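so my prof wants the structure for this chain in the tokens format not the other one, which i didnt know existed until like an hour ago. anyway here's the sequence
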Amino acid sequence: MGLDLTFLHAGHVPRCNARVDKYFEGYQSLQFIRRGEVELFYDNMRYVLETPMFWTCYPGPRIRFHGYQGQTWHHRYVAVGGPGLLDLQQRGLLFRGLQSCPTRYVDQCAALMDRIIGLLQTPDPLSSQRAGNLFESLLLDLAEWRQARSQSKPWMATLLTALETSPQASVDYHALAQRCGLALSTMRRRFRKETGLALHHYALELRIAKACRLVGATGLPFKEIAEKLGYDNVFYFSRQFRKFQGVPPLEYRRSRQS
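here's what i got, hopefully its the right format
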């Protein structure tokens, strides 16, 4: 049985001049630039993307991107929603932020995205399921490359393991930097360069991912879930949950348990 995904739109634009400035609510998208340069903002964090590069758009930050200094770029994208997104997130496949594409795999990634885009333009009722399988295959490739990259950088592997196993409400970044053998400012800078995300933002995403599992798969009161995750205030927990997931906890629970 395939993932429960809803493909909203997709496209391949060899000379793209689009300007995107929006909040993504209820869905996410995978973007790929093969040639050209793109200026990208997650809220106030700015990047000039070097090709070839993937990046994701997701609920939470205000996301803006356009051709750097007015130039066009070679653009592919797939926008997707549905309950299957949570499964992809929990398995660590649907990343948030940036990821470079190894040069030797550029043609493979472009061809895979083109097959997905082509299937979504076909009226065959099985096309969406086939596209979902290919989309998951692409995300698995990207996850494998991320894993190989982190294993080649011991400090990154140490940091990721510590963040995934530490209580999310009490991350000691200074202690983590010492364990990684880096100054805190250096660790933050390197982490952002590797992932496209601020370190604290990544830690929050791990916290919200755990919240999604508790909200969606249990009947625990939201106050109890907030306390388990280290929140002092259930109302703040609800606001932060909505910022990251695009919907409040109650609506999220109803969508998962209906």
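also thought this was worth mentioning. Residues 192 and 198 are 5 Å apart (CA to CA).
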